[in-house]
Amino acid sequence: MNLVNLESVSHAYGPRPLLSDVSLGVEAGDRIGVVGRNGGGKTTLMSVIAGAVRPDSGRVTHNRGLRVAFLSQQDSLDPAATVRETVLGGMAEHEWAGDQRVREILTNLIGDLDLDAKTADLSGGERRRTALAQLLIDDHDLIMLDEPTNHLDIEAIAWLAAHLTTRKSALLVVTHDRWFLDAVSTRTWEVVDGRVERYEGGYAAYVLAKAERARIAQAAEERRQNLMRKEIAWLRRGPPARTSKPKFRIEAAQALIANEPPPRETVELMKFAAARLGKTVYDLEDVTLHAGGPGSGPLVLDRCTWQFGPGDRVGLIGVNGSGKSSVLRLLADSIKPDSGRVVRGKTVRLAHLSQELTELDPTRRVLESVEEVRKYLQLGKREWSASQLLERLGFRGEAQWKVVGDLSGGERRRLQLLRLLMDDPNVLLLDEPTNDLDIETLNELEDLLDGWPGTLILVSHDRYFLERVTDRCVALLGNGKLSLLPGGVDEYLERRAAGTALTARVATAASAPAARTTTGTITEGPVAGASGGTKTELSAKEERELRKELNRLERQLDKLTDQEARLHAAMAEAASDYAKLGSLDAELREITAQKDTIEAEWLEVADRLGD
After folding, report:
1. What is the pTM of this model?
2. CB 473 within 8 A of CB 489
3. Residue 12 pairs with which residues in a beta bridge?
4. Which of 217, 396, 440, 569 counts the most CB atoms within 10 A of its CB?
């Protein structure tokens, strides 16, 4: 059953069209993730579908009696109402207390809030969670959520994903949390250049499908470029030859030139050289730390001993309020431990990205803000100015002269990252770096961090980003210790669900005299020496056989890659022979399918070898 239909919908803010002649529908049971760049029209599309915004043209049709719930990025809670009144309305206590679904919503979203507190006294994050709980209490035909994971920790995000997949309502969700998208969505819409491109599957399927579309588009572009080169060469022959050609040939060549696409607007982050680190980065020795200062606030660390070594890539996990940001501030020397000491390596060049943006002077211009760190940066044989780097990060033309105080949250985050990276650090402390960044920027940031050789300590509720850029995870489980998680986020959620703060591995290590730790404290060398998992031991014969198989598969891949290149070249030469192009394209698809199969086999063998 069709719930909502959009027919030739267009909408613009000022001169910029966000939706151009969009036609689509939402059916009962759909679970759709909406992605796209910040400012690209995602929220506008949601508002139009919900009926909160009337489009400039086109028609939006709702099924009769449709019950729609829309969580926008700005809540409309009554400041005079209590949390109880807002979420539960007039529901009697015995009524909601006897409903398991309602109890789960309250426990997982607002379990830490006083139900009798006024919503006016809540923080922004608490108000957001209250609004989400209010929405989920009722039954709806269509649930629309705009950035629902903001202000939720990893545990709450996992619960929300599981909850949404069990509801019968159709779901439309905008989020930059790619793990969440994969967990809840069965279809993906990408809002780009006023269009809505539709893909089957969640985020991972969307990425693969988009890559395939890009491959096909690239082949088509190569054919077009080949045609264009031939036509331009023909046009540039001598005047006698040019005047003897039919007019339509000249017009066709001019059309090819006119259709030359503009350079792609991609956000690029430079890979800055890291200063050399010594053996010591951070050593925590019997450190005790309270979040509010010595003896005040929640206990974060209790006589904890830990080492962060060169090249470590560590994700720090814990519920909101567990003290993750306090640990980063401790390492950044912004706060002091209650007792114990923090030994910092002499060669450490630190960059600390906090959740606050207050370190950016709101009165400065964007370009001035970067130039006060460094005006020029030598990369290889080329020297880049601050202005050139800003342009590559999306601050083009007049945008470089905008006042920092007028920037959006995403723009300020990008500016802050650039300032930090230009200072050439070798240790990065990142506290929620994904806030306000769109998926394209996140991909670029991940690509940067993939090749960055320093020590990285990351706090993030974006599970996809966390698992993508770190090698191992460490948790604050409320017992004052740093607990290693060989199983990553999954192990963290299992421990939280079981109410267990220690694994058998840690308990065994703690009982060993050589470990020099108290129960729950992990004392190791640099975290880089800790294993992120176990590998099945292979006999010498098994390993030889697997390596032979790996070499065989690699040779097959090389042959198929060569065949693929030859087919691409043949398709470019046969640009005007559509029959031959069809035959070559069928052959290319067969080669590509073989290559995908062999790559999967190669990955399986490599995984068994541990390569």
Report:
1. 0.64
2. yes
3. 17
4. 440
How far, in Å, CA of 608 to CA of 535, rounded? Answer: 8
Q: How distant, in Å, are the alpha carbons of 138, 156, 521 from that of 87? A: 10, 18, 41
Question: Residue 312 — very low, low, confident or very high, per pLDDT cuts 50/70/90?
Answer: confident
Whole-angstrom Cα Rg for the chain: 28
Q: Sheet with 2-13: list strands edge to edge.
A: 16-27, 2-13, 57-62
Is the CA virtual torsion 548, 549, 552, 557 positive or negative?
A: negative
Position 478 confidence tier, pLDDT thresholds 50, 70, 90 = confident
DSSP 309: -
Read off the pLDDT of each residue in 342-371 and give the average, rounded to a whole number: 84
Q: How far apart are CA 271 and CA 573, in angstroms?
A: 38
Please identify which residue in the block is written with the tokens 């068994």: 608
Instruction: Kindly state the greatest CA–CA separation across the chain.
Output: 95
Structure tokens at 343: 């030994």
What pLDDT band is residue 142 in, cutting at 50, 70 and 90?
very high
Neighbours of 357 (CB within 10 A): 17
For residue 130, which of 69, 71, 50, 47 has the smallest C-alpha distance? 71
3-state secondary structure of 374: coil
Burial of 272: CB neighbours in 10 Å, binned 0-12, 13-18, 19+: buried
Q: Residue 600, SS3?
A: helix
Q: What are phi and psi of 480, to 5 degrees?
A: 80, 10
pLDDT higher than threshold 50 for residue 550: yes
The yes-or-no verdict on residue 590 having pLDDT over 90 is no
Express each pLDDT in 566-583 by its tens digit.
877 777 676 556 567 677
List the one residue out of 147, 186, 131 whose CA is nearest residue 36: 147
Tokens standing for 56?
Answer: 């400039």
SS3 track for 246-262: CHHHHHHHHHHHHCCCC
By CB atoms closer than 10 A (0-12, 13-18, 19+), residue 449 is buried
Q: Which of 183-197, 290-304, 515-529, 541-555 has the lowest mean pLDDT?
A: 515-529
3-state secondary structure of 196: strand
Strand partners, 200: 187
In this structure, are residues 418 and 289 in contact, taking their beta carbons and an 8 Å threshold? no
Task: Report pLDDT for 224.
Answer: 65
The residues that bridge with 4 in the sheet, in sequence order, are 26, 62
Q: Give the residue-averaged pLDDT of 594-604.
A: 77
| CA dist., res. 368 & res. 365, Å (int) | 5
Cα angle at 468 between 467 and 470, to 5 degrees? 65
Does residue 260 or residue 488 have the better pLDDT? 488
